């Protein structure tokens, strides 16, 4: 007997849309940052890392700064040198990406996620392959241990992709439901400075659940995006 497997990873990306100047040997280089975090099925935080991208016009020797435990080149096989908070590398690519892993850093939001099947509480790990009436509840709130600048200025977009062959009678009061090929996509928006309780219900057969994505994005383009340093504790310098 093959036991059905449910992917219970929740992925959070915090989009830092502002470009940040960094030190380059020949010219100014634009930098974008996206913070990624994975959550356990109950909403507690796991790993966190940043993907940094740099737009360059010529071959550049670039020096960046961040409080990373490790760094990884995501573009090519060239070496990245890490010395304390200083990260240096050479690139001739139009866009260069590297990952910096963080430790002990917290999100601006807290997530409390619970599951019920046929009216009974159940762990996410025990849901795989089940039939019945599913209820998922997601509670969002501010993390009081983190500077509130992101919580006050960023909205959350939460997206669940459900197999239309397994999920029927999908109901939610807070979100929108749309067709996405053979799937149904349920999307929620949580506005800045707001705590929400999001509820999804459906009748399921042979239950499987894909990774759920949560994105934090500026609520308006006119808002000056906060420095990612507010989360990472790292130092960005020119």
From TrEMBL:
It comes from Gracilibacillus boraciitolerans JCM 21714. This is Uncharacterized protein. Keywords: Signal. It comes from the Bacteria. Residues 1-24 form the signal peptide.
């Amino acid at each position: 007997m093959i036991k059905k497997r449910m992917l219970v990873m929740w992925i959070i990306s915090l989009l830092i849309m502002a470009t940040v100047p960094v030190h380059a040997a020949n010219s100014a280089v634009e930098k974008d940052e996206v913070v990624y975090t994975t959550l356990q099925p109950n909403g507690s935080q796991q790993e966190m890392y940043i993907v940094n991208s740099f737009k360059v016009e010529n071959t550049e020797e670039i020096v960046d700064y961040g409080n990373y435990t490790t760094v990884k080149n995501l573009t090519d096989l060239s070496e990245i040198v890490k010395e304390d908070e200083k990260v240096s590398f050479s690139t001739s690519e139009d866009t260069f990406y590297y990952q910096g892993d963080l430790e002990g850093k917290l999100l601006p939001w807290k997530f409390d996620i619970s599951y019920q099947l046929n009216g009974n509480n159940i762990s996410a790990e025990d849901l795989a392959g089940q039939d019945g009436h599913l209820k998922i509840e997601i509670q969002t709130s501010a993390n009081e241990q983190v500077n509130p600048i992101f919580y006050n200025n960023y909205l959350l977009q939460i997206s669940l992709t459900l197999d239309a062959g397994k999920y029927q009678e999908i109901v939610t009061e807070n979100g929108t439901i749309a067709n996405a090929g053979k799937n149904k996509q349920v999307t929620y928006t949580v506005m800045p400075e707001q705590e929400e309780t999001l509820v999804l219900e459906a009748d399921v057969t042979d239950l499987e659940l894909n990774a759920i994505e949560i994105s934090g994005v500026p609520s308006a383009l006119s808002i000056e995006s906060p420095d990612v340093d507010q989360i990472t504790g790292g130092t960005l310098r020119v």
